[in-house]
């Protein structure tokens, strides 16, 4: 029997004044449950991200798919996604400020146990949640799927509060194995408990069933891999179970 869940949109504001609209999903529960923010792919806070929020709710977590572009803007065009993503990099604090606004909004919901918070990110959202963790946010776990690993600034010892899990596709041409090696050095230098899993035959976007369609339409090197998705989700849920329950 599947867990009964509830969903709603939540409006909130970033420090720069951006109007953000998150998608919240939580299990029907008499007591507060752990909360997880979801950093979206560069396409924006779309149906894929919302589906991930609902899945987390079905597993007993409250989840907020955060809006990084404002007014829940979404696209299926790589050029537009790139433009919006790069706008969030123009000011060094935009990414962490908007992500932190989402985390605070999540923590303030009555369904959420604000002592037990984590973050999951996909693609661009992987960078979002990693930079949030690097900033010292109170996250007990951070997990990324085909995430961008290069930091805004390298993690300092003591900043990252919880465990980090990176799920990386072996054939990812956008985030190289050299990037992965540099990330591991960063985590080791900061003495962060972390795990990097390189998933066989997986490209960038391996967790998204629409990756092949988007690749064809935009001429970008993406690819869905159901086995890698399955393995990655199992790793993620094991991490969340260990750190939040």
UniProtKB/TrEMBL annotation:
Residues 22-242 form the Dienelactone hydrolase domain. It comes from the Bacteria. Gene3D superfamilies: alpha/beta hydrolase. Pfam families: DLH (PF01738). This is Dienelactone hydrolase domain-containing protein. It comes from Acinetobacter baumannii (strain ATCC 19606 / DSM 30007 / JCM 6841 / CCUG 19606 / CIP 70.34 / NBRC 109757 / NCIMB 12457 / NCTC 12156 / 81).
